[in-house]
Design goal:
The complex is a heterodimer of chains A (116) and B (115). In chain A, 3% of the residues lie in helices and 52% in strands. With 116 residues, chain A is mostly beta strands. In chain B, a hairpin with a 2-residue loop joins β5 and β6. Helix content of chain B is 0%, strand content 50%. Classes of the chains: A mainly beta (116), B mainly beta (115). Chains A and B meet through β10 and β11 of A and β4, β5 and β9 of B.
Amino acid sequence: AQTVTQSQPEMSVQEAETVTLSCTYDTSENNYYLFWYKQPPSRQMILVIRQEAYKQQNATENRFSVNFQKAAKSFSLKISDSQLGDTAMYFCAFMALETSGSRLTFGEGTQLTVNP
Amino acid sequence: EAQVTQNPRYLITVTGKKLTVTCSQNMNHEYMSWYRQDPGLGLRQIYYSMNVEVTDKGDVPEGYKVSRKEKRNFPLILESPSPNQTSLYFCASSPMRQPVNTEAFFGQGTRLTVV
């Protein structure tokens, strides 16, 4: 079984600054994907960024980037130039394709507040 | 537009009164699942389905039923709701086959309150 842990229930950052959200996971799988989802007050689940475990290069999407440390089973999200619209709950998630289809295992979530 | 549609978005019901939350996707995805979201616990999988007539339990299946009679629909049934099923529920769908754009598509969520 897989587990995903987000140890920061809440974080805050000033607008335009950089913030890093932490995520660790535990698995015995070799072929898996990791995700960060954003959930704004509208409750919509929005995919922020995806990382394939077999890729050594860290994924980036505009202001969002990850630090993927496979050996340490760590997958942190860095948000640069934080904007007010980044205020949301952020979930880290794991998917092991070979043994569990398309099932997602989520962390507890981190509530991020961007202050003006 | 590719989407997962859940209904209703909000529901208040009384203990023991059967209810169904509907979920429909228009992307021909094989895999569909239901999650519940609770504070401090993230999203936990209730049930999933890998194809028509194929369903299986997730992590927290007690008190729930599902069916998959058609590929596009995956309703969640609470036969006798209890207050501990008060939660935010999400339906999600995704393709099964490789190469896979592994993004899961989520419905808008259903806020259920059982009194």
